[in-house]
Amino acid sequence: MTEQAAQIQADALAAIDGARNEAALEKARVKFLGKKSPLNALAAEMRNLPNEDKPKLGAALNMARQAISNALETSKQKLQDAADATSVEGLDVTMPPRELPTGSLHPLTIVKDRAIQILRRLGFALADGPEIETEFHCFDALNTPFDHPARNDSDTFYFDSGKLLRTHTSSVQVRTMEKQTPPIKIIAPGSAYRRDEIDSTHLSVFNQLEGLYVDSDVRLSDLKGTLEFFYRAMFGDKTEVRFRPHFFPFTEPSFEIDVKLQVRGEKTKMDRSRRLWYG
C-alpha cells in the first residue's frame, strides 16, 4: 500500500504541474485532498493491516499529503505572479502619477477663518477657552439667575462633576477679563452646546463668534461701525445693513441687524441676525 500512496502522490504532482489556471488547480486540490480523495480511501484500509504495517502506511500517507499541499501552494503562487506580471505589461513606470484629489476645508471652517481675518484687521485679538466649563464662568459671572431656563438639565449638558458643556462662548469673555485688565479687545469663536431638538436646521452643537471691547472711550457707534465693516467685508461692498432697536432683558441698549444680501444668481433678500450691545 505504500507503493499506492507514492503513485497517488506522483499523479497529484503531475496534475498540479499541468494546471494552467486557478480553476484547474482547485479541481486538482479537491481530487487529491478532498473527502473522497484516493489518499483518504487508502487511509481507510489501514484498519485491515497488521499493526506492524500501519506505521509505514501512515508515514507514506503523511508524506504524500505534505508533498501535494506544498505543490499546490507553489503552483498557486506561480499563477498569481504570472497574473500580476500580465496586469502591468506595457506599464511605463517613468510616467508621472495621476494627481490625486485633495480634501478641502468644511464650509463652517472657511466662514470662521474669514470672519477671524476680518476682525483681526480691526485690531481684535483671538481668545480661546475650554468647552467643558464651570457654572460660574458659564452662568454666575454673567448674572444669569439660578432659576433661568438655560440652567435646567433639559437645556444644558451637565456632567456628574457639576461641570457642563458651554452653552455659549461668553465664558471666554469671562476668563479673559479674569486674567487681563482693560483695554480688552477680543473675539471668541468656537462651539457651543445646547439640548435642542435635532431637525433639518438644528443640532445640539453650533458655532458662535462673540466679540468683547472694553475701554474708557468705546461707544455704540464703534459697534455699529465694526459690524457694518464686517458685513461688507464678508459679503461684499454692496451689502446693505440696517440696525433696529430691540428689547432684550439681559442687555441694554440692544438692537437687531437686517442684512440685505445679493446672492449670485438669486433675487436680493433680507437676512435677519441678532446682535447685542452690552452697555
Structure, explained:
- The protein has 279 residues and is of the alpha+beta class.
- It has three domains: 2-81; 104-217, Bira Bifunctional Protein, Domain 2 (BirA Bifunctional Protein, domain 2); 219-279.
- It is built from eight helices and eight strands.
- It has a three-stranded mixed β-sheet, sandwiched between helices. It has a three-stranded antiparallel β-sheet with strand order 6-7-8, with helices on one face. It has a two-stranded antiparallel sheet with strand order 2-3.
- A hairpin with a 7-residue loop joins strand 7 (254-261) and strand 8 (269-276).
- It is elongated and about 110 Å long.
- The model is unreliable at 275-279 (pLDDT under 50).
